[in-house]
Structure formats: C-alpha cells, structure tokens
Specification:
It is built from 14 helices and 15 strands. By secondary structure, it is of the alpha+beta class. It has two domains: 241 residues, BirA Bifunctional Protein, domain 2, CATH 3.30.930; 109 residues, Enolase-like, domain 1. The protein has a six-stranded mixed beta sheet with strand order 10-11-6-2-1-12, with helices on both faces. Strands 4-3-5 form a three-stranded mixed beta sheet, with helices on both faces. Strand 14 and strand 15 form a beta hairpin. The radius of gyration is 21 Å and the shape is globular.
Length: 358
C-alpha cells in the first residue's frame, strides 16, 4: 500500500492544525493513506476536543502574549506548541486503519519509537498513548475520526518550553504554577535533553519513513497536496478559527445552566481515569440525572460520542452501579470508543458531582 507523504515544512500556527483536518475531510474509502509532516512558525496553545478552555487555559496570559488558542478535533490536553516540535499526522481511510482505537496507538507509535531509538533516544511505548524515555514523557498521541478518515496525531519533540507552558495553563495559585513548571521539567524530556546534538530534520524524517515502511507495510512516496486538499485545508483554517468552535464546551455549559429550575441543582466534579481527566457538570433532580456534560482531556471516537452518552443517561438513577451499567451498555450500543475510560469511571465522576451538592 502506498503512503503519500506531504511535508508542509514551517507554516503559520493555525495551518499546522488545519492541514490534517483538511486532508481528512477530502479522504475517500479508496484513497491512499497520507502522512503529513509540519511545524508551526509561531507558537500557540492547542486544546483538546472535549476540554473547557476556561478551566484549562490562562486566557489572560495568552492574550497578553499574543498566543492564539485553537481547539482541535482530537482529544487530549491543552499544550503549548512551537517550531521545536515536528508534528506527524497519519490520515487513513477508516477501512484501511485498525478497527478499534485501542489498536491505533501501538501500531502508529511504533515507527516513532524506533526512530527515536535509532538516533540514540531510549524511547518506549507506554499505554495508553504515550512515549517515555527512562520514565520521562517525550510525547503523547491522539486519535480522531474526521469525515471518512481515521487520524492519528503525534510529534517528535526536539525541545519544549516548560516555562511558557506552565504560564499558559490555568492554576489555582502562583505557588502551584512554580510547582507545575518543576513537575514539567522533571517529568518531560526532549531530544535536546537526551542528545548532545539534535539530528537534522531531513535525516530524522528519512529514518522515520524507513520505519513507517517496515512497521506499517507501506511504500512511502513523497507527494504534494492537491488543489482539492489545499481548498479543504483553507476551509479547515476558517472553521478552526471560528469563535463558536473555539468556545464549543463553554456554550454547552451555558446551555446546561439555563435549564436549572426549582429542585434542580448544578454541581461539578473531576475524576482522573486511566484514559484522562474527566470533568463533570451535572444537573441532578430527585435522585436522577436531569442533564449531564462531560469534558476533559480524554479521547472519544466518534467525537460526539460522549455527548450522545450524556444525553442518553438522562433519567438514570444517581447510583454508581446504575450509571456504570448504563454507560457500558451505551458505549457498545452507540459504538463509542473511549480508551482507558469505562462505565465505572463515568459513574464515579457523576456520583462525585452528585455528592458535592449534598
């Protein structure tokens, strides 16, 4: 199978996200899979599909420092990005990719791990979707369904600005921010930290493509984006920059709050599941779920799966077993995949919100 490789080089910040969104939208079931490679010229902050910006990002700092905030169609957490990362986007027709999300990660992470190892970085895959070097994280990955495509995003971490990252995130105090930066310094690593000299970008890509060929059983072929793909990328730029998309979760929260009536209470909680942080906003009424919103840095396929589960849980008793059973059944019934998150995790998060209102 041919793998079209499109190296966009250095591009404006918004385009570095728009390229894989646009390429995915143009993909058909018979298309060749695509690997896009890109780095942003200017820094920015990118939040996950399901995150609430107001909960995760210090918007005042970002405005003051001309750091735009964009929401991607892939799950995961808020992150500061700049030209020191080389983004890798595998974009496959859905029928040519593994059927289940949990199988995407080891398959598409392996070429990255092997490339790191070849240049002298002792990288290893750490489930569910991270890459570690001697216990320190050097990269995460995310998966999404966009149009008729399955998308797997990742990066090579040449360097990482932990000081700016710690200032971009919403924290309860400056003391906590200092601790956050120290934690990032201790927990994260980069090529710059691991090697005396970073490899040339072109050389790294050449090694990466060889490992892609071996692991994925494909023939990498350098390519250029078509006119239709460039048009779709331009449209994706406009869509990703739209305020209604950027503030997606905020609008859901406003809608949720508007529905409060007598005897109905809006409460919230947070629960750290193996698959990521879950934030719950719960409208509870007479011991049952009236309305529910779940946000966070988890992966969910398809993207609207968590909203469909929340809607279907309305009327469920606010009890651990009842919610866990219903959520597990709904994930199967609706074909929703949330790697590292079970019905029990959803139930724990929801019942914690209910308990906070007692």
């Amino acid at each position: 199978m041919k793998l079209r490789v499109i190296d966009f080089g250095l591009v404006p910040a918004l385009r570095s996200q728009a390229v894989y969104h646009g390429l995915a939208e143009t993909m058909t079931p018979d298309s060749d899979p695509v690997l896009s490679l890109v780095s942003p010229i200017d820094p920015y902050v990118c939040v996950g599909m399901h995150q609430e910006i107001a909960k995760e990002v210090d918007e005042e700092f970002c405005r003051a420092n001309n750091l735009p905030v964009y929401r991607r169609h892939v799950g995961g957490g808020a992150v500061y990005l700049d030209r020191n990362q080389l983004f890798t986007h595998f974009i496959y027709p859905r029928k040519k990719a593994p059927e289940f999300a949990v199988n995407l990660y080891p398959m598409f992470i392996e070429p990255v791990v092997r490339t790191y190892q070849e240049i002298g970085v002792n990288a290893n895959y750490r489930p569910v979707n991270d890459i570690h070097v001697n216990g320190r994280k050097i990269g995460g990955t995310g998966a999404a369904s966009i149009g008729d495509a399955t998308v797997m995003v990742g990066s090579f971490m040449f360097d990482f600005d932990t000081a700016t990252m710690s200032k971009c995130l919403k924290v309860p105090s400056e003391k906590f921010r200092d601790k956050l930066r120290q934690t990032l310094d201790d927990y994260m690593t980069t090529i710059a930290k691991e090697l005396p000299k970073a490899p040339d970008r072109a050389d790294l890509i050449a090694k990466f493509l060889r490992h892609c060929a071996d692991v994925l059983k494909v023939e990498p072929v350098m390519s250029e984006p078509s006119g239709a793909e460039l048009a779709a990328i331009a449209k994706a730029e406009a869509d990703l920059a739209a305020p209604e998309w950027t503030n997606l979760q905020g609008r859901k929260l406003v809608d949720l709050g508007v529905k409060i009536s007598a005897g109905t209470h809006l409460t919230e909680s947070a629960h750290k599941a193996p698959g990521g942080m879950m934030r719950v906003h719960l409208l509870g009424r007479d011991g049952r779920i009236e309305n529910l919103m779940i946000s966070g840095d988890f992966t969910c396929l398809p993207p609207d799966g968590i909203d469909r589960i929340c809607a279907a849980l309305a009327g469920t008793a606010l009890e651990q077993e009842a919610i866990a059973s219903a959520a597990d059944s709904l994930m199967k019934e609706l074909s929703v995949e949330m790697p590292g998150i079970s019905g029990a995790d959803i139930a724990t998060a929801v019942t914690s919100a209910a308990a906070s209102g007692d």
